[in-house]
Design a protein that fits this description.
The structure is a homotrimer of 294-residue chains. Chain A has 294 residues and is of the alpha/beta class. In chain A, 45% of the residues lie in helices and 18% in strands. In chain A, strands 1, 2, 3, 4, 5, 6, 7, 8 and 9 form a nine-stranded mixed sheet that branches. In chain A, a hairpin with a 3-residue loop joins strand 1 and strand 2. In chain A, helix 1 packs parallel to helix 3 and helix 5 crosses helix 6. The radius of gyration of chain A is 18 Å and the shape is globular. Chain A starts with 15 loop residues before the first strand and ends in an 8-residue tail after the last helix.
Chain lengths: 294, 294, 294
């Protein structure tokens, strides 16, 4: 993993760090990298985040020394809020397709899942919509027991989730729980997410960082080839075929332009969407406020 | 959803209700319907139940306004006991096939699973055999923590379960737990059913109705198209192919006619099958009493 | 199930027992058999164990009366430690292939999974590596809540697990938890194994034997054909295709011969591998001690 603003010492094992607009990267050793989301106020995902993550995934894929990447957040209340079109949907449309031929967002998630590296989501705070889609594309997910809210709120706003959670949750938690998460579209806290298998497990908040560090440090010492080949065998059984992803994203884009959904989006912004608001803190419960009375 | 005994106001949003022999239907709004099983003494499923449910599923499928159907029971001790041939197996045989080309029972379960509507089993009391098969065909399953017994007792009576639980449980709870449920053939209480993923979760009995009402009311307000399309994507990944169902039902019918199983069925009726008996209350444990000593 | 050292009374229902080098067999009745691993000091699996288990599986497959086989251990601290090449890898290589055309180890696991008999792993103590692979090939897994450690430590030693856990765990516990078990390669205790679905459930140690006996005795009374056909339907949905197994075993053998892994194996033996040592008791945690400092 190299980048234009790192020194040649990058592969010496010495710690180094570099930043992008929406996250910073701490290369703790040749085999261990930590990525910290930091996009105030609530870590929304925008076209910029997607472009930067796509670049990062490209570096991860090509790095022969890297064993493990941990993704955490600088904001204890928000891991990755959800997607924000930033009043300019054309920027999202302009992201184009990635090497898989799929839209940049789907492309980077699929490539992260297949990379010969263990990706770990260390979740503290909220991860909804595309934030949830990101953690579902990671290999391992650990959540703060006291301070996590996960969910796919899209159906509550009248659209289909676009970044693959039907494909991933169906395989991860089974039909009944996947349908509940996707259709009831409410938040799951840490214990519920653990019970449903949405995350590997919930960990007491004051132990989360220590446990993730222990897991990552352990993985960093293992043989790269043993990790890569073993993961590849699991990939063959568990990863959705690429063909499952694009139709739902096309539905998402189409449904988002319908007048009713545009009105609902506007109402959500009035209520505080994309800001550090009560709406964002309790979005799973409060999303219904954006629905006009029948 | 319309029926001959409802007024044209059915779609006005006003509550209405109608009844069949084995359940009543309360149309709470255009988008929300509640079905309450009420077939004393223990909510057995008979040829009549199947015919009435098949009609109901047809109405559900064609209703463009309906988002959610909750199935509950008027009897707190029995949700749906199991199938009862009513001393007249010819009535069950005469049910014929449904639109999918499968036997009416398989047909209605498959069509309910695929309907563009969220079906919710609100389980209080016992649901075994075909009662369990019905809840497995629903999209979401919630069970009273204190007052639920779920099971597939068929193997204990010397036959293969016929209504698809091998196909559905294998995908829902994984091989090990599916084999235990099906082969050990004992009852699971609410906490165990939750732990195994047989139900989405167990809810304290005095909270069950309130929680289900909150979930259903929420779903009733959502966009129908968003629900239907999102569910359809999950269906594509999680529903068994139709071809898995008929062979096991054929096995069930064939094995049921064997002399040993006929004798065992007779013994179960002597012990209180199909009545509100201690046998029915503890059928999972007591089914072995119908087996002759080796 | 018959063997050369059993009397013709084997099928009379009377209890009988016979022994092999690494386990003893207690035929409690025509329909119920118990196999107890007893290979001091820590129940390693060797070429001898594989040959003896292969013979046993052949007997199980052909026995028309047998309903249930319970596998337990004479050593409360070790169920099946893991594979031991006994300083003679040629013996393992010489095991050849079984009737499925696969290596003897894969062959016996696959055939046990498909046999028309319920196989139950009653786990007390440690089961790692091929010990874990064995329990994963059983139909039902129950673990002592207080005294179980399960794991696939292979990646920690620089090799791919060879006996199918990628295929089986991926389907049993889902992608995220399977990747954690296989890549982090640490031990899971009873409660964690239950939570992840690695075992059906954890049972209080002082209740384990009683509960397993109740389950096995119950299964022993059931109709053989009902068990066999019902299991077969679950097999069709849940068993991995045979083609998934050989490539990982080939990887295992290849990687094991690399100098780095040979050195690591030697270091593990120095630390106490294959003996009743602290290393073996805490192998999941201590395996990293065999990795040279970077």
């Amino acid at each position: 993993m190299s980048t234009t603003d790192t020194s040649p010492s990058a592969h010496s094992g010495a710690s180094e760090s570099w930043s992008r607009t929406h996250f910073r990267v701490d290369r703790r050793s040749a085999s261990y990298c930590r990525v910290t989301f930091d996009h105030p106020p609530i870590n929304t995902i925008t076209a910029t985040t997607v472009a930067e993550l796509a670049e990062l995934v490209g570096l991860i894929e090509q790095d022969p020394d890297l064993n493990v990447v941990v993704f955490d957040s600088a904001n204890p209340d928000f891991y990755l809020a959800h997607y924000d079109v930033e009043n300019d949907p054309s920027r999202t449309a302009a992201l184009g397709v990635g090497p898989t031929g799929m839209h940049a967002w789907l492309d980077l998630l699929v490539r992260l899942s297949r990379a010969p590296v263990v990706s770990i989501a260390s979740i503290r705070g909220r991860a909804r919509g595309s934030g949830s889609e990101f953690v579902l594309a990671c290999d391992l997910r650990f959540a703060s027991r006291e301070n996590t809210l996960l969910g796919q709120f899209e159906v509550g706003t009248g659209v289909v989730p676009g970044g693959g959670p039907m494909a991933r949750l169906s395989r991860l938690v089974g039909r009944g729980r996947a349908l509940e998460i996707l259709l009831v579209a409410d938040d799951l806290d840490g214990p519920r997410a653990e019970q449903y298998g949405y995350v590997n497990r919930a960990i007491a908040d004051d132990q989360l960082d220590t446990e993730i560090e222990a897991i990552a440090s352990r993985l960093a010492r293992f043989d790269h080839e043993a990790i890569a080949r073993t993961k590849s065998y699991v990939d063959q059984v568990t990863l959705p075929p690429d063909s499952e992803f694009p139709p739902a994203l096309a539905d998402f884009f189409e449904m988002l332009t319908r007048p009713a959904q545009q009105a609902q989006s506007a109402r959500l912004r009035e209520l505080g969407l994309n800001t550090d608001s009560d709406l964002e803190r309790f979005l799973g419960r409060r999303v219904v406020e954006s629905i006009p009375d029948a």
